[in-house]
Amino acid sequence: MPHFVNRDQIFAHQVHLLEHKLRSKEERILELETENALLHLRLAECMGKLRRDREEDVILAKRHCQHQGKVQKSTLVPLAKLLSHVQALKKELRDVFAVYVGFATELENQSKQLMEWMDIIGKAVQGDQGGDTQRLQAQVASLEGSLQEEKERHRSERMRRRQIHNTLIELRGNIRVHCRVRPILPFDHIQGSLSTNGPSSSEVVVQAVSDDSVLVNCTKPGSPVMNKMFEFERVHGPEDSQDAVFEEVKPLLTSLLDGYNVCIMAYGQTGSGKTYSMIGSQDENRTHPDQDSQEGIIPKAAKELFKLISEKPAERHTVEVSMVEVYNNELLDLLAKDEDGAAVGVKREVITTSPGTSEVPCLTYELVQSSVEVMQLLSTVLRVRAHSPTLVHRDSSRSHLIVTLTVTSKSPNPQALAHRLQSARQNVQHCGPQKQWWSPRCPRAASSRSSSSNSSPQSSPCHSPCPASWHVVPQEPLRTKLQLVDLAGSECAGTSGVSGAALWESSCINRSLSALSDVLGALAEQRPHVPYRNSKLTHLLQDSIGGDAKLLVMLCVSPTQHFLSETLQSLGFGYRARQVQRHTPHRKNAGLKRK
Ligand SMILES: Nc1ncnc2c1ncn2[C@@H]1O[C@H](COP(=O)(O)OP(=O)(O)OP(=O)(O)O)[C@@H](O)[C@H]1O
């Protein structure tokens, strides 16, 4: 402690102390104020940062919200789909599981039953019950035998039924209709993929369910099942060979030599197999090992005709061929040749003669000696015949082709005939309706014929014994014709994708086919006027359609959904053709002359 002398010194010292304290306080205050200012500054900085952070947060939150909205939007729909898919899968799985459980139970039951049987068999074998086993085996064998017999009986009954039906058809003068369903071909899948009808267009909807019925499934997607059944004299499925198809046609050739006119006509939509059925495969790179089996009705019919002729050596036959096409409602003679001998289609006309039959004046006829010659002529003609590609068929025939084989039969020499009659008389004393060499010069037959102007030899037979001398009179030649027709295909312009000149061709084809349909309609309804002359095609085929020829329509149809409406149209045409009742086909009398 300092030593003070007086009070003033003490006082001054205290003042000094106080001043010192005050200064230090003031320094402290300044220090604190500086600190305070710094803190304020920091606070302001923090507040600013905080505000910025908040603002950023708000922006981020906004963005986040927007993003979430977008994400939700884009995921909700697929999510819903996914969910329903999952639900469907779950259901499917449950169903499959239920089926599986069913199968498993069934399998278990069956294996139990099998075990029981094994047990019984084991016991039977062990317990020397061989006699029972043998008896059972014998029973099985006899059951199999009777099943076989039943099958055989059923088959022969069916054949008999068909024969009776065919006879009935013939007696009623009906047109015979066969139907051929072609197999699915590679272009059906292309059509299917091009189609707007959906992916099921190459699905098979037309089936040959038996040898006389064809079933068409006309169900539209989302509609109840609707099947239509069509019956024809014969139905061929995709597996039926060319030989099988011809077998059903073959008897008509015997009829031809028996004195009937015959016409076989293939009808159907484009690409349905008409040319394949009538002529055979036209594919350039065909490499079938057995070409004969691939041939169609025309070559097979020509072969059969010459075979039948060769089996009748006593009679003399000549065969002449004519080939025409109806193209754009013009009739063209395809065997006519120009000065250089090249085949050119020459225009001809169809006329109706006074007895009411149709004739083509100046038509070229070629005399042929064998089926090979017929086919040589046909292959020349096919090069001239109009054909062009369409969307449906890359080698579509654009004309109706009519190949006619005219057979002239001359009676054997009188001695040979007398000899034949002599042996025939030993069996039959009367000249019946079926006699092949029935002579129109027999006075009794002639008088019985003249009593009914319309009657054929079959309908007015002579029932009296006839002296042989009346029959040995040499006869006039007998002419019969076999018309083989490959029609152009019906089509709709949309499907075939044609335009310009091809569209005109297409419209001519459709018009002539609808004229054919109209003719059948008029005949079926027995209308007094039949519009044969509405088209060259119907005018030319007048005798075969409405006359007394044996007419067979071969309907060709495609099996797939893509061509369903065209198929139904073709089947409808066949149905209409079957309704036609004409005069009973009758044999030609000798003496028919070609004009
Ligand atoms: N039954 C069948 N078996 C095997 N191929 C067939 C059958 N039917 C038709 N084809 C084939 O289908 C295609 C079309 O047949 P096709 O030429 O006979 O038709 P189309 O009815 O004559 O046609 P378009 O009227 O257009 O001339 C051809 O390639 C043919 O070989």
TrEMBL record:
One of its GO terms (biological process) is system development. Keywords: ATP-binding, Coiled coil, Cytoplasm, Cytoskeleton, Motor protein, Nucleotide-binding. Residues 15-42 form a coiled coil. It holds the Pfam family Kinesin. Residues 439-466 have a biased composition (Low complexity). GO terms for molecular function: ATP binding; microtubule binding; microtubule motor activity. The keyword ATP-binding applies. Gene3D superfamilies: Kinesin motor domain. Signal peptide: none annotated. Residues 431-466 are annotated as: Disordered. Its main location: cytoplasm. GO terms for cellular component: microtubule cytoskeleton. It is found in: Cytoplasm, Cytoskeleton. The keyword Transport does not apply. It comes from the Eukaryota. Residues 174-580 form the Kinesin motor domain. Belongs to the TRAFAC class myosin-kinesin ATPase superfamily. Kinesin family. This is Kinesin-like protein KIF25.
